[in-house]
Amino acid sequence: MNRRLFVLACATVVEEMVPLMPEGAEYEVLDFGLHVNPEQLRQTLQQRIDALTAPYDAIILGYGLCSQAVIGIQARQSPLVIPRVDDCIAIFLGSRDAHREQHAQEPGTYYLTKGWIEVGDTPFTEYERMIQQYGQERADRLIRLMLAHYTRLALINTGQYELEKYREYTRRTAERFGLRYEEIPGSTALIRKMLYGPWTPEEFIVVPPGGIVRYEDFFPPSGDAGSPG
Amino acid sequence: MSLKDSLIQAIAEMQEEEAIRLTRAMVDGGASPMEVLDAARQAMDIVGQRYEKGIYFLPELMMAGEILSQMAEIVKPLLAQAPAARKHGRVLIGTVAGDIHDIGKNIVVFMLDVNGFEVMDLGVDVPPQKFVEAVKEFKPQVVGLSGFLTLAFDSMKETIKALEAAGLRDQVKVMIGGGSVDEHVRAYTGADAWGRDAMAAVNLARQWIGG
Predict the structure, then answer these.
(1) Same structural domain, B166 and B62
(2) What is the pLDDT of residues B78-111, one digit of tens each?
C-alpha cells in the first residue's frame, strides 16, 4: 500500500528528487532564493505546511538545517521528516558524513549541481549584475573578495542526468574565477531514503504531528550529533 | 542635508567616490574621527537592514566594506593623534576550523579596531590549537569566534573546549557570531555571548573590557 507522502522541497533539491519520486507522492517546489533569508524561508515553509488540509503519512522536507531555517517548524496533523544534514550539499553527496568528509578535505569549496546551476543565484551569476551596476573594475574587486579563500569549484555528479552541459559551464566558470575545477561523485542514497525510508534516527529527524523541530534535533547537547535523540 | 547625512546616504547608496569625497570634506571641515565613524556605523545599519529585507545582497555588503576600509585609511591617522588613542584592551579573533568565510569577521575586526581595541586576527580555517597558542602569547581579554556555516558550530565548541583543556577558559570571555549564530548556538558551544553584527561585538568587548 502506498503511503501518502507530501514533499516540500527547495528548487535545487527537487531536481534530484523528481526522477525518484514515488508514484502518487505529491510535491511542491519552493524558490531557491529563500535560502539567503532563513526567517523568510521558515515562514514560507510553515505557511505551506499549514496550507495542507488533509493529514499525510509524512511531510518530507527537501531541506537540511539550512541556516536554522527549519528550526521551529511544526506540522499539526502529519509527521515531519527532515534529513539530519547541514544543507543540500549533504543531500547531493548522499550523507552527512560524506559532506563533512568533502568539506574537511577542502573547506574552500563551492559546490554546484544541475539545480544550482539552473536556478541558483551564485556569486558567478551575481557577477554579471555587479558589472552592470558597479562597472567592470569594481565587479572584479568585489568578486575577488567574495571568493577569497575559495580554491575549488566542485560539480557534484549524482548520476541522474546528462552532465556535459553543466560540466562545460562549471569548467568555464572555474577558469574564469581562478578556481580549480573538480568533478566529485554524488549519490542518490539519501534522497532514496528520504522518499522510501528507512528514516533511522541517525540520518533523520522525524517529528510527530504537533511536535516542533528543535535545535537539539540537529545538535544533541552531548555533542555526538547523529546519535539517536 | 548636513555633510554627515550626505555621507551616510552615499555609503548606503554604494556611491564609493562620493563617500570618499564626503569623508575628506568632513575631516577637512574639522569633524572628529568619531563623528565620521559614527556616520559609517549608521550607514552600515541601513545596509544591514536592506540586506535583511532582500533589497541588498552580498556584493552590496562587500561594497560597503570596501568603502569603510577606505574611510578608515583617511580617519586612522587622526585617531592616532586623538587623546583617547590608548587601546582599551585586546581581542583575538578568527574564523573557526573548516570555515573560510571572513566578510563578516573583517567588518568586526574593522569596527573593533576603530573603536580602540587592539585586535589580533588569525584569519580563516583556524584550528583550535592555534587559538590556544595565540591566547597564551597575545593574552587577550576577549576571544571572538566567527563562522558562517552551520558546520562551524562544532568547531566553535571544540575551540572553546580546547581553551578549557589548556586551562585558559577562565582568563578570557568568548563571543561568537556569523551566519545563523543565535542563543541556541551560544548555549551549545559554551560561549559567553553571541552577537548579531559588528556593533554587537564592539558592545560586548566594551562591556567586558571597558572603553
Answers:
(1) no
(2) 877 665 556 789 999 999 999 999 988 998 998 8
Residues B119 and B194 in one domain: yes
- What are the start-end ranges of the H helices in chain A? 11-17, 38-50, 88-93, 96-105, 114-119, 123-146, 164-176, 189-196, 215-218
Q: Which of B83, B115, B143 is the last residue of a domain?
A: B83
Q: Which one of A124, A151, A219 makes the best mutation probe of the B interface by having the most chain B beta carbons within 10 Å?
A: A219
Q: In this complex, do A126 and B58 lie within 8 Å of one another by their Cβ atoms? A: yes
Low-confidence ranges of chain A (pLDDT < 70): 1, 222-229
Say how many CB pairs under 8 Å bridge A and B: 75
Question: Does the distance separating the beta carbons of A141 and B66 come in below 8 Å?
Answer: yes
Interchain CB distance below 8 Å, B100 and A104: no
Last residue of a domain, one of B46, B63, B83: B83
B90-95 β-sheet, strand order = B118-121, B90-95, B142-146, B173-177, B193-195
The domain of B47 spans 3-83
- Specify the number of domains making up chain B: 2
Of the candidates B102, B149, B185, the beta carbon closest to that of A148 is on B102
